[in-house]
Specification:
The complex is a heterotrimer of chains A (298), B (433) and C (330).
Chain A: H1 2-32, H2 39-59, H3 66-89, H4 99-121, H5 130-135, E1 137-140, E2 143-146, H6 147-169, H7 171-181, H8 183-188, H9 193-215, H10 227-240, H11 245-265, H12 270-284
Helix pairs in contact in A: 1-6, 1-9, 1-10, 1-11, 2-3, 2-4, 2-9, 2-10, 3-9, 6-7, 10-11, 10-12, 11-12
Chain B: H1 2-16, E1 30-36, H2 43-63, E2 80-86, H3 91-104, E3 109-112, H4 116-129, E4 133-135, H5 142-145, E5 152-154, H6 159-173, E6 179-182, H7 188-204, E7 208-209, H8 224-232, E8 237-240, H9 245-256, H10 259-262, E9 264-267, H11 274-277, E10 286-288, H12 303-316, H13 322-345, H14 351-358, E11 362-364, E12 369-374, E13 379-381, E14 384-392, E15 397-406, H15 408-411, H16 419-424
Parallel strand pairs in B: 1-2, 1-3, 3-4, 4-5, 6-7, 6-8, 8-9, 9-10
Antiparallel strand pairs in B: 10-14, 11-12, 12-13, 14-15
Helix pairs in contact in B: 2-12, 2-13, 3-4, 6-7, 13-14
Chain C: H1 7-25, H2 28-52, H3 61-77, H4 83-105, H5 110-130, E1 140-141, H6 155-182, H7 184-194, H8 196-201, H9 206-232, E2 234-235, H10 237-240, H11 243-256, H12 263-281, H13 286-300, H14 304-317
Antiparallel strand pairs in C: 1-2
Helix pairs in contact in C: 1-6, 2-6, 2-9, 2-11, 2-12, 3-4, 3-5, 3-9, 4-9, 6-7, 6-9, 11-12, 11-14, 12-13
Classes of the chains: A mainly alpha (298), B alpha/beta (433), C mainly alpha (330).
């Protein structure tokens, strides 16, 4: 029984992490049809900025809880700056071009941003352990768990509910749905698609950065931080269905819990799991579990 | 005829890139490339200190300022012209880069390499190109056990000695251990490390290995689930060969959850993080440095060691960690071989003459005695040691307690015997004094 | 018009002759660069066929890696060590896998096509990284192959032999692709890209045509991967199967431009040189140079290098632009 609880909690923590890092990717894809490879850069920049600022704050004698404020501040800052630079500087000139060229442009930007991190932050890892240390640990299921990791579950839940409310219950959400369903029609109806795109991209960037910033206190933030995240979040999004928020949630839960089960019971299969789930979904439902319907144009 | 013109352009471009003959000067420097991780997660904890250790020694060699008897200038009188190269990007990229290094840029000595996989991949290439290659670190014993390379050397012990020494240390200081498990990165380094440790433990103790071993992917970074599994495992000792950003992430995540208090953890390469984590380094952890390097030998009084610590601290502001020692040792070995070869030849030596001197060489390095005893004189053996971390509040530093060294002949197989066979065969011929 | 009078084929044949002589004269590091470049060029040739239909795959490292690993595993575990057999096995296996995966892939277009391929390639990556018998993260070293039983004592002669074989094979597949593009089925390539439903009204099955193109591209990717493995003497998952490897392949496709079946060979060589010098001159920022180049190509060189070269050539000869630049020779 204790093991079952541990597996469940481990699964939930990892699922929450996956959901947080893949939410931005799936939102940008859903609205803009862009597979945003720079998502990994947003994640890495978010982590670096948060870790750097938390380190500064600690040296300046700020209280440890300030770290939490810094995490969100870093995410918003990185999302705004990088999101705007990329959208205004590169992507806005490409919307009339092939979608795959846009992916390539984000791939090029990703390569550039990877090295920019090296130039700005150097190769030495950054530690920002204060927030995790502050929250300490709790005893659950017979073992100690870090409270910080458990707050990931809360953050994921808040993000899931917020995005659902925004998409379903607000004027903005309806605009988005219109753009998602048919961009040309939305434009013809006088919708300012360009503004929708800017806002979507910046929000997606903020979410990517938030994933990195929130993880930063638990790890050593080192170069190459963003590369694997792209693959992880991509897998989650493929499983759930590209561009679907509930899909990302289901995808994250499926991968997270199956992986936890594997680590506890059959650790040798751990890395297969995510790909096995993905392969199964691909063979039986290649568009993902929750893919939005798309119209065929003549 | 447009196509023809294009083909012609392509051919001309190719021809234009051909270097126009190489001028040979009398006192041309010895070109050395020093390769270590300069980007990626292994750079900060391992690659950069390694590079720095090499740099301190190379600068001193060019200035003739190493302590006696090495206080002659340069390698056999010629200055070292060094280029520092990034090891990241995978084995395939390193193979391509090695060829460029040797064939395009005309490097005389290739020195360095941290990753076992990269060393395995490069060995046949080095043999093909017939270029003196001195591995400073990489772990796997297979390089000199599965083939007999002529141009490749390694100037520190291979991973077997780390793990055999760890098992001896566990037997000596933690005799009550009933079970042990492991968390190691899923590639050659992690797999070899575990295999040797497991085999040595079976020989030396009655403890049982866990059936649930953790093999996370290299650079995974998130170990929450693995830590839960380790905490739930009945084994009371955990073996880990983590060494880079992974090690530090694992320490942060494990520390918050009391992993290091509940389980006895053995980090075979944990030393690399001591100076960086400082107070954040958990107490009571068994720590190795892949040999007598770094914090473990901080207090050794030899002139070379004192000089190295002072020179490194002077330049980089911290004590030299293990990787700095290991790269410094490779550079020193190269100098000793060049100088000895020059003395014997009475002139600047050829590569073959240098190799003849390095083969089977025996010398005092900065912190230890090195003997090129295995692999037909190509693979070094040294003593190996472990200690237990203890925070010294007064000094504001991590100190090691219960430091214990095991002699080279105790933890290394004798020449001609494969590591795994040697351990499984009861470690015959070991001289543990 | 038959193939012998096709100007692209004539140009390729001439280039082959010139390169066979040139490669014997250049220093060995250039031989290596040519080996890497032309191995990749064969893969890119397949991507070019797809791109003419407006399909871009972000997962062809799957077939590239499959080809490379087939060579490595076959020579390691079966003792067969002849280049012809190894390359044949590599091309065969990736073609077979491509054939089956094609049934799923052919239903998808645009970005979904790109990403489904990526998803499939990640499965192979996951398997390789996790399996010790397949070398996990480290991969394998491959021995020097023999050529139809002939073993070269001097490794540099072996490399040269491999390059000659590679150039002849490269020539053959380029001519083959050219012939395909000029066939009726091939001519549908651009038409499907423009409007697939119109093509179906003409009585052709777009899915069927795309499946054929896809299998062709996987054959070429496996073959190129096999050559790459022999050229490097090493395989590893991160530089051959990971998504970044797929990204590189697409990058070279864009860099080369879709203008001609000769373009991939030039584009790949430029890419190798770019990467080598970027790494040599700016070891800390070589990715930035590569990424920046990619952005420049996307923005300012829509026709890739081929478009640039043929544009300059036209201006020099003061000729009016030849009709239908993308189908040069076709």
């Amino acid at each position: 029984m204790e093991t079952a609880l541990t597996i469940l909690l481990d699964g939930l923590v990892f699922s929450s992490y996956l959901f947080i890092v893949s939410l931005g990717l799936t939102i940008i894809f859903g609205v803009m049809k862009i597979l945003n490879v720079t998502h990994g850069s947003f994640y890495a920049w978010g982590a670096y900025t948060a870790a750097f600022l938390i380190g500064l704050a600690a040296n300046a004698g700020w209280p440890d809880w300030a770290g939490f404020a810094i995490i969100f501040f870093a995410a918003i800052l990185v999302g705004l700056v990088l999101g705007l630079i990329l959208e205004r500087g590169i992507l806005q000139f490409m919307y009339h071009r092939d979608e795959v060229l846009i992916v390539l442009a984000t791939f090029g930007s990703f390569l550039v941003l990877e090295d920019t991190i090296l130039l700005v932050f150097g190769v030495d890892p950054y530690f920002a352990f204060q927030p995790m240390q502050l929250l300490g640990s709790v005893e659950l299921g017979g073992i100690a768990r870090d409270t910080y990791g458990l707050t990931l579950i809360g953050l994921a839940a808040v993000l899931a509910v917020t995005s659902w409310l925004v998409l379903r219950r607000t004027h903005w959400g309806k605009l988005l749905s219109a753009v998602i369903f048919d961009r040309e029609l939305a434009m013809a109806m006088g919708l300012n698609v360009s503004r929708v795109y800017i806002v979507t991209f910046v929000i997606g960037a903020m979410l990517g950065a938030l994933g990195g910033a929130y993880i930063a206190p638990t790890v050593s933030v080192a170069p190459g931080f963003g590369v694997d995240v792209i693959v992880l979040s991509f897998a989650v999004v493929v499983i759930g269905g590209m561009g679907s928020v509930p899909g990302a949630m289901i995808g994250a839960l499926a991968v997270g819990i199956v992986r936890a089960l594997a680590v506890h019971k059959f650790p040798q299969f751990e890395l297969f799991v995510i790909y096995a789930v993905m392969a199964t979904v691909l063979v039986f439902r290649p568009e993902g579990l929750f893919a939005p319907v798309k119209a065929r144009k003549i | 005829m447009r196509q023809f013109r294009k083909a012609a352009i392509a051919a001309v471009v190719a021809a234009a890139l051909t270097p126009a003959g190489v001028a040979v000067a009398q006192d041309k420097p010895v070109k050395m490339s020093v390769v270590s991780f300069l980007s990626g997660p292994a750079a900060g904890p391992f690659g950069v200190p390694a590079r720095n250790g090499a740099e301190v020694v190379i600068l001193a060699i060019n200035a003739g300022k190493l302590p006696a008897p090495h206080n002659t200038k340069g390698l056999a009188g010629r200055p070292i012209e060094v280029e520092y190269i990034d090891e990241s990007g995978g084995n395939t990229k390193q193979v391509a880069e090695y060829r460029n290094m040797v064939e395009k840029r005309g490097v005389d000595v290739a020195l360095g390499y941290v990753s076992s996989g990269t060393c395995e991949a490069l060995t046949p290439v080095a043999e093909e190109l017939k270029k003196l290659t001195v591995y400073a670190v990489c772990g796997t014993p297979r390089i000199f056990e599965e083939s007999k390379p002529q141009y490749v050397f390694r100037t520190m012990s291979h991973a077997t000695s780390d793990n055999v020494a760890a098992a001896y240390y566990v037997r000596e200081y933690f005799p009550k251990i009933k079970g042990y498990t492991g968390i190691n990165q899923n590639y050659a380094w992690g797999q070899d490390s575990w295999r040797d440790f497991d085999a040595a433990m079976k020989q030396l103790t009655k403890a049982k290995a866990s059936t649930k071993l953790q093999w996370p992917k290299l650079f995974q970074g998130q170990y929450s689930t693995e830590i839960s599994a380790l905490l739930l495992d009945k084994a009371d000792l955990i073996h880990s060969s983590f060494y880079d950003g992974d090690l530090e992430s694992f320490i942060f995540q494990g520390q918050t959850r009391g992993l290091f208090k509940k389980k006895q953890v053995v980090f075979t390469v944990g030393e690399t993080s001591v100076y960086r984590l400082n107070k954040r380094m958990p107490e009571g952890v068994v720590l190795g440095a892949r040999g007598p390097y770094g914090v473990i030998v901080l207090n050794r009084p030899s002139a070379l060691n004192k000089w190295f610590i002072a020179a490194y601290k002077d330049r980089f502001g911290s004590y030299p960690p293990g990787p700095a020692y290991q790269y410094a040792q490779a550079v020193l070995a190269t100098k000793i071989a060049y100088d000895a070869a020059a003395k014997k030849a009475g002139a600047f030596p050829s590569q073959d003459q240098v190799i003849a001197q390095l083969k089977g060489a025996e010398f005092e390095s900065f912190s230890t005695h090195v003997k090129m005893a295995l692999g037909d004189g190509h693979q070094a053996i040294t003593e190996n040691g472990y200690g237990i971390t203890k925070w010294d509040a007064k000094a504001g530093e991590v100190k090691l307690e219960k430091v214990k060294f095991y002699p080279a002949e105790c933890v290394n197989p004798p020449a001609g015997v494969k590591s795994v066979d040697w351990i499984n065969g009861g470690m015959k011929g070991a001289k543990c004094g | 018009m038959n193939l012998v009078r096709d100007r692209t084929v004539q140009g390729l044949t001439l280039a082959l002759g010139v390169m066979l002589i040139v490669s014997a004269l250049v220093p060995s590091w250039i031989v290596n660069q040519l080996l890497f470049a032309f191995s990749r060029a064969i893969v890119v040739l397949g991507l070019l066929v797809l791109w003419r239909t407006r399909l871009v795959s972000f997962g062809h490292a799957l077939y590239f890696g499959l080809g490379a690993y087939t060579v490595a595993m076959t020579s390691r575990y079966t003792g067969v060590n002849d280049a012809f057999a190894l390359l044949g096995a590599a091309a065969l296996l990736s073609t077979v896998v491509g054939f089956f995966v094609g049934f799923i892939i052919r239903r998808y277009r645009d970005i979904f096509f790109a990403m489904l391929n990526l998803a499939f390639s990640m499965i192979l990556y996951g398997i390789l990284v996790k399996t010790e018998a397949l070398g996990s993260t480290d991969g394998f070293t491959i021995e020097q192959p023999t050529f139809a039983g002939i073993a070269f004592e001097d490794p540099s002669e072996g490399k040269l032999a491999l390059l000659c074989l590679l150039m002849v094979v490269g020539w053959a597949v380029a001519v083959g692709v050219q012939a395909y593009l000029r066939s009726t089925l091939g001519r549908l390539t651009t038409a499907i890209g423009d409007n697939e439903i119109r093509v179906e009204y003409l009585g052709y099955s777009a899915e069927h045509a795309i499946h054929i193109k896809y299998v062709l591209s996987t054959f070429l990717a496996g073959l190129g991967g096999g050559f790459m493995a022999l050229a490097l003497g090493q395989v590893d998952p991160d530089s051959m199967v990971n998504w970044t490897a797929s990204g590189e392949l697409v990058f070279v496709t864009i860099l080369s431009g879709p203008g001609s079946v000769a373009a991939p060979f030039i584009g790949s060589f430029v890419f190798e040189i770019l990467r080598t010098y970027a790494f040599e001159w700016m070891p800390h920022a070589w990715q930035m140079i590569v990424g920046g180049t990619l952005l420049i190509v996307i923005f300012f060189m829509p026709g890739g290098l081929w478009g640039l070269v043929s544009g300059v050539a036209q201006r020099l000869t003061r000729r009016r632009p030849a009709a239908a630049a993308p189908g040069a020779g076709g």
